């Protein structure tokens, strides 16, 4: 079974959100509203001469109103007009608006954020005006359970996809292992010898957990060469500790792993770790079926 860390899940959700346009994005935001406000959120769609009354969905009890708009690639001036029009239209059509939330699958440029803060918020001080861009949406979605996430981004989890055999190589240094750790979005449960002593088991468990921790924060330190070198040295020390116990680490990656099903699956690289006892042929690569 594949394991996905929190940062990787957020990247996968962001990728799925970026694919959505028009009504598909609004439908996705409806599913999010239904999960965040169970029993309160009501989707709204345009109907009749008044359209959707500048309201793409709302919570009649909490008095939270939503405007969902896929702004990816849109001109700044058009986005500003859209935000002002939706906000003012909503306030004219609806009573007691406590929170007005603009949802977009883009990161709005500073000029738009400044427009909201300097022009709109001072005009409507009685209303909490929020903007949930790509990062915020992904963070909010990832706070939920896996089944809820799957429902929101409209995917079907795939537990056991079929894969070709993946080549695993004996890694001896953090420098060799870093490309796998920094490039993966998840990992299969590692394979280890069946006859491990308690001491060996503790060393293996600690090593694998540390490797996962480095993988989890790899995206945050990639900008710093010195931080990456520190990470690589730490990983080398882990591999040397395994070697002292007569154990070797083999690693590889399964590319284009479908973390979900459906017509637009979430794809990413999955790391595979195998701990084996050292033999005279330890430098020879081994092969492993993902998940085995």
Q: Helices and strands: which structural class?
A: alpha/beta
> What does the radius of gyration come to?
24 Å
Largest sheet: 6 strands, mixed
Q: Beta fraction of the residues?
A: 15-25%
Show unreliable segments: 47-52, 156-160, 281-288
Provide the helix percentage.
Answer: 40-55%
The order of strands across the largest sheet is 1-8-10-9-7-11
What is the distance, rounded to the nearest whole angstrom, between the alpha carbons of the first and last residues? 9 Å
Helix tally?
Answer: 9
Count of β-strands: 11
Mean pLDDT: 84
- Return the string of H and E elements: EHHEEEHEHEHHEHEHHEEE
Shape: elongated
Record the SSE blueprint.
Blueprint: E1 2-3, H1 6-19, H2 22-36, E2 42-43, E3 57-59, E4 64-68, H3 76-93, E5 99-103, H4 110-123, E6 128-132, H5 134-142, H6 146-152, E7 166-171, H7 174-183, E8 186-188, H8 198-221, H9 225-244, E9 247-258, E10 267-277, E11 286-288
Parallel strand pairs: 4-5, 5-6, 8-10
Antiparallel strand pairs: 1-8, 2-3, 3-4, 7-9, 7-11, 9-10
């Amino acid at each position: 079974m594949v394991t996905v860390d929190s940062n990787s899940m957020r990247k996968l959700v962001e990728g799925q959100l970026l694919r959505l346009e028009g009504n598909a994005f609004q439908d996705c935001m409806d599913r999010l509203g239904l999960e965040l406000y169970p029993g309160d959120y009501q989707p709204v769609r345009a109907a009749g001469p008044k359209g959707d009354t500048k309201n793409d969905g709302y919570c009649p009890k909490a008095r939270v109103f939503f405007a969902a708009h896929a702004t990816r690639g849109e001109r700044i001036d058009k986005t500003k007009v859209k935000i002002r029009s939706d906000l003012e239209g909503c306030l004219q059509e609806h009573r007691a608006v406590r929170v007005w939330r603009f949802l977009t699958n883009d990161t709005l440029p500073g000029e738009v954020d400044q427009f909201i803060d300097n022009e709109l918020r001072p005009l409507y001080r009685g209303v909490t005006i929020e903007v949930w861009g790509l990062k915020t949406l992904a963070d909010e979605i990832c706070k939920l359970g896996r089944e809820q996430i799957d429902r929101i981004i409209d995917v079907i989890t795939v537990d056991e996809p079929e894969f070709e055999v993946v080549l695993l190589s004996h890694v001896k240094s953090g420098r060799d292992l870093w490309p796998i750790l920094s490039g993966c979005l998840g990992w299969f449960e590692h394979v280890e010898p069946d006859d491990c002593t308690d001491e060996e088991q503790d060393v293996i468990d600690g090593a694998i957990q540390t490797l996962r921790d480095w993988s989890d924060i790899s995206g945050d330190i990639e900008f710093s060469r010195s931080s990456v070198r520190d990470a690589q040295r730490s990983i080398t020390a882990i591999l040397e500790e395994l070697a002292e116990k007569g154990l070797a680490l083999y690693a590889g990656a399964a590319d284009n792993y479908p973390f979900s099903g459906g017509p637009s699956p979430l794809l990413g690289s999955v790391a595979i770790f195998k701990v084996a006892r050292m033999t005279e042929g330890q430098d020879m690569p081994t092969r492993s079926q993902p998940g085995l």
